Amino acid sequence: MKVMKFGGTSVGTPQRMKDVTKLVTKSGEPVFVVLSAMSGTTNSLVEISDYLYKKNPDGANEVINNLEQKYLRHVEELYSTEEMKQATREFLQSEFNYLRSFTKELFTSFEEKSIVAQGEMMSTNMVVNYMKEQGINACLLNALDFMRTDKNSEPDPVYIREKLNALLEQNEDVQVYVTQGFICRNAYGEVDNLQRGGSDYTASLIGAAINAEEIQIWTDIDGMHNNDPRVVEKTQPVHQLHFEEAAELAYFGAKILHPTCVQPAKYAGIPVRLLNTMAPDAEGTTISNATEYGKIKAVAAKDNIIAIKIKSSRMLLATGFLRKVFEIFESYQTPIDMVCTSEVGVSMSIDNSSHLGEIVDELKKYGTVTVDTGMCVVCVVGDLDWSNIGFETRVLDAMKDIPVRMVSYGGSNYNISFLIREEDKRRALQSLSDTLFKD
Fold first, then answer.
1. Per-residue pLDDT tens for 329-353?
2. Per the confidence metrics, is the pTM higher than 0.85?
3. Which of 171, 351, 371, 382 could form a disulfide with 296 if both were Cys (CB 3.0 to 4.6 A apart)?
4. Residues 199, 201, 205, CA angle at the centre, nearest 5°?
């Protein structure tokens, strides 16, 4: 069985819901579908919560009423029979009455999570009702019945597998199973959410729990390219990535899954495919544990990087120096991205400047500090194992005319990173693209 996840824009209008239905039933094989809330709904639910925190029930009710009218208009467009229209209206009325009930009670973060969860509840019910109207054997499985986190707020895979497979056994011979993404219960039975990655995480956890054949993530983004087509000419789609390659690209804001979201799939050895709802016949990008040996896959870049260099003669042969430096960044909860060391100094890059002043003040206790802003990290991703003779030479050759502040190579078998000035980014990316992907 395949797991198919669709985001908010994929179910954002009645027509999109119809399109999703065609996609999930196209093969005729049983599928497990994970849906997000309709686009814009979660923002409205958060706004309702904000009014309730501020003890403004009138403001909350106005947002609730506007959202309800939007959904009722969708009902008229989505269904063709009066019977299904009426059934869905009654369901939505109970949902919005439930939201209104919070305007009369004490409001805390627990209530907010219950409110935000209703977006997924409404989208899944509406889609399943449409499928049933079309004669499709569809079943709605409530995520709150099987998706749970433990006391550390991490998913409980044993619980999820047991509960979900029991539900599947109770609902055999169903063509389309539908559930909500993002929402769950915590270890205490309260409504909660998966925090990182949302619905993508749900799809990955379900795929691992049912030993799915494949996990498909459907978006309205045209897959992965070997560079940003807005910056570099003649980009090409990336058809296959190793999970580690995908993780490297995720840091650079590539339109790709967060590494945490695909961990369950990675450990279970289940491939993940990124597909485009606007081009459903396109191959998309497959992420798996397979490595395409000897191949460079993509180039990505990240702006707004800060380089910090601390130089100190006391560092020479001094044990504990790096620990003291790293503890300063840790105390201000500022992750370090790249690190280069010499006998008398260390250079680091960060992408969070919120505590830059305090960090620099602390570092000055140990040496002379230099800060460079307006920097950019450019990353080349692929099979870059050190045994692949000549690969790093090709990459360095492409960068021969670009001033490079730092180079990171050897920390991973899948990337080489360069710290350069933002003003040199476009030139560097184009040169790398021309050199590495000219074939």
1. 999 999 998 898 887 789 999 999 9
2. no
3. 382
4. 120
